[in-house]
Amino acid sequence: FAVLLPRLARRDDIELVVRKILDALKPVVTLTDIPLEVRPAIGVALYPDHGTDASMLYQHADVALNVSKTKHQAYTIYDSAIDVYDPQRLSLMAELRLAIATDQLQLHYQPRIDLRNRSLAGVEALVRWQHPKRGLIPPDDFSPAAEKTGLIDELTLWVLHKAMLQGKHWEAQGLSLEMAVNISTRSLHEMFLVSSVREALKQTAFAPQRLILEVTESAIMLDPVNSMRELEAVHELGVQFAIDDFGIGYSSLAYLRQLPVEHIKIDKSFIINMHDPKNGAIVRGTVELGHSLGLNVVAEGVEDKAAYTSLKLLGCDQAQGYYISRALPLSTFNDWMSKSRWKAKTA
Ligand code: C2E
Ligand code: CA
Ligand code: CA
User: Fold this and answer.
1) What is the residue-level pLDDT of the chain in tens, covering all 347 positions?
2) Protein residue with its CA nearest to atom 21 in ligand 1
3) C-beta of residue 133 within 8 angstroms of C-beta of residue 97
4) How far apart are CA 20 and CA 5, in angstroms?
């Protein structure tokens, strides 16, 4: 549906209109006895900020709509920063290519701790871009565009290499830390991942059993047959896999059982809102499901003591989140490690 609002008085009124549309679509629709719940996604473009003719406005509303769909949010207002086709974006991609080549990227490290014995199990490497003019850019602001333009493979290679090199440094200091690296949807193709991981393991001499590759459910489900083949080939190198953002994708339990994975990471949206009984029940169910499949269950987005304690009571294995620590640059992370009550095991 397209909704035209020729007499919108203030930008803030968009929210009001959106609420009305969402409320109108709330009642469950029954089609031949089957109750269907409608989950609307809305994209908004404003005249004259986002276009001065119908076609430009429509195109930009469509870009915003796509963001709502992929991010599972009710509505998005267009912004050139989210538009992968925006010329500014494209020049940013040219700069990203250079940034990868000239080491303008950095990794920050976020600890993952064990809930049973208070040890530090490992870290997740999270990429940031130190842009000379724009400052520190978070991955959500450049990795979607990097996926669309094919630069993501170069990014993945860079991160794998850098993270394993750091892992090797800690190993040399006698610390036993697992290193988790995020693998984007687009890097799961045509044996790209196998050859990259094999090469990085060889060059850095990092122990493969300490490497965890985080892949989202939706990435696997996009092309289950090929993804499975790729995951299995990488798994044979001795590395581990985690399913990231677990619970928000279309989890097919049949597939989950067959996948060569060791860990599931319950999506932070459930953990942050765990005080809501519905989310609490989902978390409890996921911990049980994970355990019955023999998997290590990690909760991400643990922001406060209440969540931490509940997860412990539920028998969740590991936790990651602001309550323990944010993702930190290397030197700050090393500092955190030396003072923290969660200690790394020695190798
Ligand atoms: P993710 O893999 O789900 O990573 C977790 C994100 O949640 C991180 O954001 C982290 O800083 C944030 N976070 C951690 N603890 C908490 C918490 O307690 N509460 C809340 N609200 N947030 C928390 P970040 O670093 O901005 O990364 C965002 C996403 O970008 C990541 O989501 C991941 O999908 C992607 N990403 C990060 N690094 C890489 C990379 O090297 N390669 C690829 N392909 N994607 C990456
Ligand atoms: Ca992750
Ligand atoms: Ca996640």
Assistant:
1) 899 998 888 888 998 999 999 999 888 888 888 888 888 899 999 999 899 999 889 988 988 998 888 888 889 999 877 776 666 777 888 899 999 999 899 999 999 999 999 899 999 999 999 998 889 999 988 888 888 778 899 999 999 999 999 999 999 999 999 999 999 988 887 788 999 999 999 999 999 999 999 999 888 887 888 888 999 999 999 999 999 999 887 666 777 888 999 999 999 999 999 999 999 999 999 999 999 999 999 999 999 999 999 999 999 999 999 999 999 999 999 999 999 999 998 87
2) 301
3) no
4) 13
Does any ligand 1 atom lie closer than 6 A to the CB of residue 184? yes
Nearest CA to ligand 1 atom 33: 182
CA–centroid distance, 347 to ligand 2, in Å, is 25
Distance 289 CA to ligand 1 centre (A): 24
Q: Which of 86, 41, 35, 47 is nearest to 68 (CA)?
A: 41
Q: What angle do CA 205, 207, 212 make, to 5 degrees?
A: 120
